[in-house]
Amino acid sequence: METKYSKEQFEGFTHRFIVEFETGEAYKHTMHIYSNSGSQEMIKNFIHKNKSSKVNYFKIVYVATKEQDEIASKLINETLSGL
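The structure assignment produced for this chain is given below.
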């Protein structure tokens, strides 16, 4: 199976990574990347290979499985249903 990465959810994604990018600006840029692989090493290699020259540094700040995201969304919806 080919490993896929996308900024959008896609059929068959299994993990969501939140990646923080530093470009020398006063603030950091954050991106959600969806993948059908949970390997942090593979996504680091993918980003390193495809990042622009503006990126000075990046790090993965959060990883969740699709199931973890669904459980968290359900909890949030149940918690905020009375608002």
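Interim note for the steering committee: The beta strands are 5-6, 15-22, 29-35, 57-65. The CA atoms of residues 21 and 27 lie 9 Å apart.
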